[in-house]
Structure prediction request, 494 residues.
Amino acid sequence: MTSIITDYLAHSGKQLSDLTSASVAYLVNLDAIASVSPVVARGILQELVSQRTNLKLIASENFSSIPTQMAMANLLTDKYAEGFPHSRFYAGCENVDLIEETACNLAKSLFGAEHAYVQPHSGADANLVAFWAILSAKVEQPALDRMGIKDSSELSADDWNSLRQTLGNQKLLGMDLMAGGHLTHGFRKNVSARMFNVASYGVHPETGLIDYEAVERQAKEFRPLILLAGYSAYPRRIDFQRMRNIADSVGAVFMVDMAHFAGLVAGKVFTGPYNPIAYADVVTTTTHKTLRGPRGGMVLCRKEFAAYVDKGCPLVLGGPLPHIMAAKAVALEEASRPAFAEYAAQITTNAQALANKLIASGQRVLSGGTDNHLVLIDVGPLKLTGRQAEQAAREARITLNRNTIPHDPNGAWYTSGLRLGTPALTSLGMKAPEMEEVASILSLVLSNTTAENSKVKYTIQERALAEAHKRVADLLSRFLLYPEIDVPFLQKRF
Prediction:
């Protein structure tokens, strides 16, 4: 028995049989880290303390399980495994093959996809893999076929330069960042806008909803190679059947980035026309956020694109991260269980309760509510910038992020909006009554925050801040993050 476990048992008065395997793993893991770097161990512990004392409302974050975290902490991190299962550039990858295939099979089963690729290190990487797979399948391969050449390495220098010009002049139509799209959907400061000739679609100025007729008109005029749907800050469902029809009408490949709402698809909250798997040629996602796994990405696609997607390494990626793929497999197994569907449904129920209470408290909620896991607030009527509101909320122990809103007068840095999400608080077990309390606390803070002569500086009334602290502490005392971990004991030890 390790010294930390012995000390913990003496401290707590418990027996070894009283401890969960997760708590033992966490204690031993932190102790091992501290033996080499006490600074890092304290940083990890302090982050746990921070997340136990602040309400996490960041829509793109969640709390992964301890088994998921432990799957990343092993010698798989030492393995090079370029290629894909049973087709590697390195020997000795049999066990990585098993783990990666397990993750891929779980992903295919969970989402009903024809093919899965679990190597991307992030959602941005997954999008790059998808973009280049589509370019390879729809631009490069047809050009090679016309020339009777099997591989681009056989091209002459002149033909290769001509092909590169063609690859670099394709069209992408995606959702505008200001309307709720993602940086990788064609924002000019992102590589996606430098790879493609980009046009962006927005939302209706009055409803804040996607105007499908306007998207169709724009697609027919622009004629993109790729029509991209998905979002990072759009609080409604997307009709993927309608978007598929638009893509088909112009001969475009239909791609969906479901990074934010993958858990709602996996949990069967989004079904029928709102499930992208049935309609998209290629679907990308992260494995954290609503899916509650490790930080990482994934590509799901039709068989037509499978061989091209599998060449993500060396096409775009460096070496795969086997320890992260192991954690993805653990998280996908968790998401395959019936309890996950209940969790996913609660995410949306909670978001709607949060939005409704914010509206009742006088906040301007964009689009009038939500269909998914996130809520957007316009803080302009409060005469605050998003930056001021974000920092005021954090001071009140509510962690969220500022976000642009359509036609944002403050731009992408200061912003006029706040983005709130319910995945993490739902993981803690909170339900609609707690969401109403969260909305009430946030409204208290925002209504008692005053902007100074700056887009950054602000003042919060002390009485409101003290009340917010008390109410946040009360909530979190009833919904403890990783309750099996004795934080006071660890703080004394490290």
Q: What stands out?
A: Residues 123-147 form the longest helix (25 residues). The chain has two domains: 75-335, 338-478. The CA atoms of residues 405 and 442 lie 19 Å apart.
